[in-house]
Every structure is written in C-alpha cells, then in structure tokens.
Fold this protein.
Amino acid sequence: MHYYHRSPNAQGALARRDPVIQNSAPEINTPTPNNSFDGINNLDGFTPPDTVGAIGPSNYVQAVNVRVQVFDRFTGAAQTTANPISSLFTSLGGGSLCATTDDGDPVVLYDQYADRWLIAQFANASSTTGPYYMAIAVSKTSDPTGAYYAYCFQTPNVSGGKFPDYPKIGVWPDGYYMSVNQFDGAGNTYLGAGVYAFNRAKMLAGDPTANFIYFDLNGVDSNFFGLLPSSVDGPLPPPGTPNYFAVLDGVSLGNTSDALHVFQFHADFVNPNLSTFTERAESPVNVAAFTAFSPSSPGVPQSGTSQQLDTLADRLMFRLQYRNFGSNESLVVTHTATGGSGQAGIRYYQLRRNLPGGTFGINEQATYAPDSLHRWMGSAAMNYRGDLGVGYSVSSSSTFPSIRYAARLAGDAPNGLFQGEATLITGGGSQTSTGNRWGDYSCMTLDPTDDCTFWFTTEYYATTSTGGWRTRIGSFSLPGCSPSPRATIHGTVTSGLTGLPLSNAIVRTASGYFRATAADGSYSITLTPGTNDFTALFAGVGTNLLNAVVMTNGESRVQNFTLGAITPVITSNNWSLAAESCLPNNALLDPGETVTINFALRNTGTADTTNLVATLQPTGSVTAPSSPQNYGALTAGGSAVTNPFTFTVSGVCGGTVTATLQLQDGAASLGTVVFSLHIGSTGAGSTAGANPANITINDATTASPYPSTVNISGVSGNVTKVTVTLSNISHTFPDDIDVLLVGPAGQSVVLMSDVGSGTDISGVTLTFDDSAVSSLPDASTLTSGTYKPTNITAGDAFPAPASTSLLGTTLAVFNGQNPNGTWSLYVVDDSSIDSGALGGWSLNITGDVPLCCGDVVPPSISTQPQSQTVLAGAAVNFFVVASGQLPLSYQWYFNSNPIGGATASNYTIASAQPSDAGNYFLVITNESGSVTSAVAALTVNSGFTGVLAGWDVNGQTSYGTSPLAPSTNAGNITVVGLTRGSGVTTTGSAASRAWGGNGFTTSSAGAAVTAVDLATFSITANAGYKVSFASISKFDYRRSSSGPTDGVVQYQVGAGAFTGFATNAYASGNGGHSLAAIDLSGVAALQNVGPGTNVTFRIVNYNGAASGTWYIYDVANSTALDFAVTGSIAAAAAPPASPPTLSLVGLTGNQFQFTLTGTTGSSYVVEVATNLPAANWIPVRTSTAPILFTEPATNDQRYYRGRIAP
C-alpha cells in the first residue's frame, strides 16, 4: 500500500568480486518443515502483500496489506477471519482515521517479555497533504483474538509534513522503536529517514497519555535510507542499553564504501529533551565487498513469463535481530547481493560486540548463491545457541517463485550457510503483473517457547496470475537444539487494605519483563535465569519491591505481593449541607455564604483508629473554619461517622470548594482527606445565531461566500449542545454537496456529504441534531426534516481556509468549548455539471450557566420553530418550547422586523400569501437576559402553474408517455398520450406539434406522417386544479395524395357524449388543409374543466388510405407551439395574475427556445427538472412576462415549465 521507493542513490554498478560468496551447494542437512500452512491470500487486490508475522505460545499472527489473521500454531487452523487491521481500533470511534482507514505497511510483533501482541500500520488522511498517523494496537492480554489498547499517533509535521513510508518496528525493554523512510506528500521527493521510540510501559498499561520521541535524520545525512531498529529475542540486553539501528552503504548504491552504519537511540520518556540518537564511534563498520543486485530495476526472472521481479536490493531487510549472549551481544540482518553468476543471492551479517565495553565488528558474513537460481527478499534470525536461519524467495526462468530456507549451526565453519537449503513450499505459478513488486519484506522469528525453532512467512503463487498471490507460514528446527534455559515466577497480588486480589496490577522487572494480573490477581512470568529486581504496583494502593531475586534454570517460584500498609485508611464518604445563610435558602453553596457541612469519614483500612481528630484547613475557598472535630474510634471496615464543620465560602459562582480535613490519630498522622463541593448550580441557557444571506453553490468548486459566518458573543458557560439548520436548499444533484461547520476554537464536523443521490431538490430545509432519529439517506430523495450529521464517504476535501485538524463525527465535538467567536460554514460542490443555492443558515447553542443565590434562570429554548413550505391560503403556525425564570416575554420577528401583537410562544398566519414568505424568529426575555430562536423560513407557492408538454433535448422527443404507460404528472395537470409518433420524419429547424397515430407528436411543416387511426389522447386536472385550452390550440388536417378524404374530430368531457367539431370537406391536393382551423379556446365546454375530469379527443368516420396527419396546429404560425394546456387553482377566487403560457418558437439540433407569456409586467418563474414523474422543479429564471428562454445545447435531458412567481 505504501509508495514504491528506492534509495535515492540506487543506481547499480559494474559487478565487483564478492570475497565471501558461497557459490556451491553444501550437503543438505537442514531439516524439512515442522509446520507448513497457508496464511492470508490476496483478498483486496494489493500487490505486493507486505507479508509479516510472529509466533507466540499458542498462536501465529500474520498480517498483509490491510488484513490481519490469527492461526493455531499447532494445526494451522484459522482462529479469526482475515479482518481489516482498522478493526483493532474501533474503540477510538469513527472520528479516528486509524479506526476507519487501512493503508497498509503492517508490522506484527510478539513481545515475549510482556506476553502481548503489537500490530501496526500507517493511516493517512490524504496521500498528498496529510496529516499522517501510525496506528499501533497492543493486546490487553496474551490472547491475540481478544481486545486491544488502540493508539493513533499523529506523526510530526516536520517542514510542512513528511509521509512516514515503510515503517519497521522492534521490541526493546523500554520502548517500541521504529524507523520510516520520509517523503513529501506527493511521494516524489525523499526527505530523509525518521526514527521513533514509543513509550512501551504506558502502552502496555493502556495509558492514553503514551508518548513518543522522534528524530528527523534528514539534516544528519539525507542519504540514509531503509534504517532498521533492533528487535530483541531471548535474554534481555543489559539494563540501560540503548536501542541499536543500522543502515546499509554500498559502492553499487552510490556510496563510497561497502559498510553498515550503526546508531544508538536513547529515549527518555520523562524528559524527552534528554533523548539522543547518535552514530556509534566505530561506525561505519566495513563489510565484504558486494554488488547490489539490480537495485534500480526489476531483475529476477520467472518461469513462463517475461515479467521480472524487484528485489529491493538497496536496503536491509526486516528484522535487525538483537541477541544477548552474556559475554557479547550480536545483531543479525540480511540483504540481496549479486552472486558469482550474476544471479541474486542472500548476503547476511552477524555483528558482535563484547560486553561490557566492546565495539561492533563483523563476526559472520556470506553471500549465499550456491547455484544459478535467484534468491532474494530474505529475513534472518539467530537462536539462543547461535544457530542461524535465513528464509527467502527463489526463482529462475525455469522455476516458479518458491519459498526456501537455509541455515548454519553455531559450530559450523565461518562465513556460510553450511547446513544447506530446504523447501517450505514449491510455487505453482508466476506473477504476470507489470508492477514487478514482490514481497516488500518477509519475516523470520524465533519460537518463544523454546528459543530454538525458526518460523518464516512470505508470499508465493499457486497458479500463474497477475496478482493472485498466496502466503505461507512454516517452521523448522535445527538438530540438537533443546529449549533454552528458563525459570518461572508466579503468584497473586492482593491489597493489604482489603485482603482482596487486585486485577490489572503490574508486576515488572527492571530489565523489561512486564505482566498485568488477571481478574483473580494472578500473574506468571517466564524469564531467563539470573538475578532480577521485581516491582509490584497498583495505582492508588501501593508498591512492593523485591530486589536481587536469584532464579535458576527450571525453577518455578511462587511469589505473592501485598500492596498497601496494614493501617487505618480514612476516606471521604459523603457530605451534606446542614445550614446556610442565603435567603431564601437554595440548598446550595453560594459565594460569601456561611454554611455548615456534615462531613462523613470511613475507615477502609485494616486497623481501627483510637482517637481520630479532623481539622478543617483554611484553604481551597474555605475561610474562617470552625474548630476541629473528634471522630473517635473508627472501626476498620465499619460504618461512616459524621461531624459538622462551619465555614464561609470565598469562591466564585460556578467554582469549587476544596475542603481538606487533616487527620490525626493520637501521635500518628493519617494524612488528609479532601471533599470537593460545587459552588452554585448549573442552569441551561441557549442562544441562536443566523446568517440569512443566500449561499450560491457553484459548480465543482467552493460556494460563494466561502465561508458563510455567524458571530456569537456575550455567552457565559461552555457549549452543551449545538443544532444547525440549512434553509431552502436547491440543487440539481445534491449528492455533490459537502458542508463543514467549524467552531471558534477550530473543532469541526461534516454536516452532510455524498447524501441524497442525484435527485433534484428545491426548498429543502435540513436541521442537524445529534439526538435526531435518523441520518440523511444515501441514495434517495432529500426531504426537509431533522437528521444526524451524515458523512457517507469520509475524506472529502474542503479547501483553505477550512480546517479539519480537529474533526469530529457528531456535533458533540463542540461540547465543552467556549461558544463565543466566529462559526464558519464551508460549502463545496465536489463534482461537475450541477449547481444550486442555500437560503441562509442558523445555529442554536445550549450552554451551561452558573446560578447562585439571588440569580435568575435565563430563558432557554428546547424546541425551535421549523421552516415550512405551503400553498397560498394555507394556515401556518410557528411555535417554540422554552423554559426559564418566569415571567417570560415573547416577540416574533419577520425579516428582522417585530410583528405587532405577536407576543406569545406561537405565531399563526391564518391564510398565508406570497407576501408572507420570508424569515421568522422569536426573542424570549426575562430579567436575566434574552435568547433568540433559530430562523424559520416560510415559502408560499401560489399554486398557479402553466404546463408545457416539454422537450427532451437529448433524445429530441416530447415529454409525456405512450398511451399504455403511466400518465405524466407535470404541475398538477395529467397528460396522457403525448409522445413522438412512429414513422415521423423531421427536417429543417422549424417544427410543429402534430397529433399522429401514436398520439401527440412532432413533425416539420409539410412532412409526411403515416398511421392515422382512431388514436385518442386525454387531459385531466389533478385535485384542486382546473384545465383550460389556450387560444393558439386549433385543429387542422393535412393529408398525402392517398390520404383520407373525410373524417370527424370529436371531443368528450368526462363521461359525456363525444361531440364533433367539423366534417372533412377537402378532397383534392397533396398536403393541403382539409378543414378549417378550430379555435379550442372558443369552445365553452373545454374551459375550466374541474379536477379529475378527463378531456378526450378522437378522429372518426374517415375514408381512404391511413396516411397523413391530424394536427392541433396554429395555421398562422408554423413555428409556434400549436398546443397548450394551462392550469389554475380550482378555488372560486380569481388568480392574482394570468397563468403563463409557454410557446415553442425554434428548434436547432439539441437546442430550442420558448416564450413564456402571461400578464405583461407580472413576475413568472421558469423551472427545470431532470426526471418525470414526481419531478423536483428547480428555478432557473425569474423575470417579468414575456420571457424568452433559450435551452443550452450542452444540457442532458431536461423538462421545463413556467409558474407565477411567489
């Protein structure tokens, strides 16, 4: 998953003679595997797998890019599924990137000194901008299938941010040490190595304050690439030993020598400034000359394909193993070098340093290349006897990539893997991916149960494919190796105060062993024989030290620990207010008030007191305390005893009294007990702010303005709840809208992102409240209401000045913050084509208000007024639910102006009219202050709709449906049978509407149209509306030379009889008019037809061939819309203006124009929709009649209509 990077100096060079090459195969003595079973395969399509794993007492834990799985070490059976690594971090919550992101480069370690597991990967908010995180999980117990302490460490933003690529981690007594290769966010520029030390003790204890130490090595040497931290196996290093790091130099890598640089990292977690990272005096340590194998390009051949594989020969391979042999300590590591025949070979090193004061030098090294096969991607480790095991991949042009291992015994001749080679699994295929990536790393670990057995994991292919890799896990033991010396100490930790076992108490040694007790207080540590200092501790109870404990091989010692002295232990039990001077009494402590408090004490220790005396101290807002009180003999474990103390409160309202009792039992001081008493009470106050200014949601960019802001001031107390309302949102593709709210202190939350699919919305008002029942829908139409903040897809970008550094997932992210300051709303449209608008926004803030003697509870609002959209004439009611010290006074405002007589908690408009549309809010006042409600928007639609049987610009068809399909609802007029007729030929730019064989159709004037029949179409007004026919709606007939010679056009209203208009009397000519045009507006029966009544038309009694076209047509203007239907409200009252009529005036390609006419000078709105039926109409033009509207030729399918402006 990480960037693919080579060393900045990787360039290749002419082959140099390798003086330590092992170019012949020894006699094979390396045994076959003890275990061999498949691990995780490629479930997510990533290449390479980054295979890593570790062996524990009962389990093998393996990880690949983004997945982790636990296996039974004995049977190979899976004990968990291959879960995303982020699943270990769910305890951090959905707001943590570590809990929601899987970016790979995993590390798995078994910390045998704590009997815990460590699993890690990096997590990136953005691969180009950061911030960058290391996600590290530490198991709470020895069970890797159980719970984990989860840590999400943000890596330092050094020099504008450095991406921490290729992390490698090692176990050390005082910390978990890590190296990274640092790149710029784009992944193009190498910015040096970074090294870290994480606080192991705190991480094992689940302490959320666990910290880390970091050094940026770019300024030390920008060429250091691929550093590795050491990781200890077996006996721990001498106390105080720093962690060792190593990095490879090579002439073939662009350096001046072949060498290993060795560093030491001393971490001081208490005083980080005292930490150091230094290169050792003997570094660099020269190694035998080598040539890196193809460090700048793929070079390993495979069977059956021309695709070659990468070796990453520019770096040391995971792990750098540390081992303490008592008289000396060693580091073991491997990398890929060129063999004698130009093939890839395994170069390994053992560095040794005599203890205590020696220097590191090469003790053992060789390049294993015994034949023509290529060997690479190795990992090496040494057991407690000094036997060495190396695992690796092997391939050639005739050999599928396979997994093998080789070994040497401690007593073998130097500089070679003389036990030979064995096969873990033979591959059955090659990798044909052109990416050439392989492994990136593999992992060899030692079995902690015997410190003899080697366990190895890496990748292979069962069959040839582009990326269908599999992984293998296996173990092997070298002859004659019995388990390492070990001893066990175990026992129980109990409380000396209660005699009960202590769960999660810590037992540790100075050298680095660590255990947390189980629920029954038990612990067990297996450790290397020798002398150890033990500490048992439990926070708040006590510590017990056991020094210089000598353990021998095979010994099992019981060692119990008791924490806490066997003495009286006095604790604060409770307190009560006995008397106060505030009038009227409010049962509270108030500033300046004299109070009498009963303080109760209880003995929770293991011995009784004899004559306990308590003295109230004049500190912590206590002044003029009364005399000491005698509590007498308190029985250990007995009931509490209460005594009164009188004092004056000197603190402030909302503050705290810290009452301290000094305890004396005869000559023995028993310390102090502390009571914490709150001054006053806390009330709830709320305030509202709004910015009613429209926000233009621009296409594929930030909105205008960006941001829109609301300023809050004069609020006391901190935030306890925030709700936000976005008013009158219109957009043709709301899935594009991303909205971020940022508070004054920088906390932020995404209110909505990627919601609502692509269905148009208009006039939608959304309120966001954490206590809402549901979230916004992902793939259905947005409707007005109250919802939880909904972020469907994390990671949306909000350009500067927006900041998401303190991003939360709910509005509770603002709780506890000071509400005063600027609140900013950032709106972004994240895709092209569509746009929209937002009609202002508001927020309501509830906060804590301290109340003391004489204070009045200020007003607060628990239920806010809601935005509404109604038809003209409908009743509207706005209301709030409020609380506070009575009496409360109310004043409603309309567009910031007070409404006369609107002085109740609700405001009603009996019959809303367009002039009532606007913003409403309420101010509530009492003697303590005032609070302003959220703004509620009222939208009033007149309901007068002119309907255009529209035009599909993309498909060049009129909108409507075929007679057999569901009818179209367009602005409350239902039209059935309006489609383009079959066989229609369209030429030229002018067009007219024709009533052809399949219904309402389109043809150019004079074009032939066939299939004249008894086709009918009908028009119906929906409930509450009427239908009429405009003056341009006239009938005409044109025929071909063989067309019919007569016929009757009839209409029917409802279920009445069909009535004819005229009979065809035209019998000659081609394309002529066969009957006079009929003005439908002059037919009284066709005007103001009520709701639910069909108006139906048909042709009967015609003779001749079925060719020609019946038209509803304006004879005088061949380019005009020849059919129009207008709708109006069915109420008896006359409309305020004429309903609009829309006339088609031109058609060219995918572009057309229409004219909206109505009452000259009156305002009308042209609206567009992208789908029918149930369209969401979006306003695109508001102007006075007449309006000429040109459809953009670039649009997809659109439908248009006109209506009277509100």
About this structure: The radius of gyration is 42 Å. The chain has six domains: 21-474, 487-563, 570-673, 681-850, 856-941, 945-1204. Helices lie at 97-100, 200-204. The chain has a mean pLDDT of 81.
